[in-house]
Amino acid sequence: MRPRLVASLLVTAALAGCGGDDGDGEEIPGGADQEEARVIEEWSTALREGDVEGAAEYFALPALAQNGTAPLALRTREDVVSFNEALPCGAELVSAETAGDYTIATFELTERPGPGECGAGVGSTAKTAFGIRDGKIERWIRVVDEDDAPLPVPEGPVV
Question: What is the pTM of this model?
Answer without folding.
Answer: 0.77
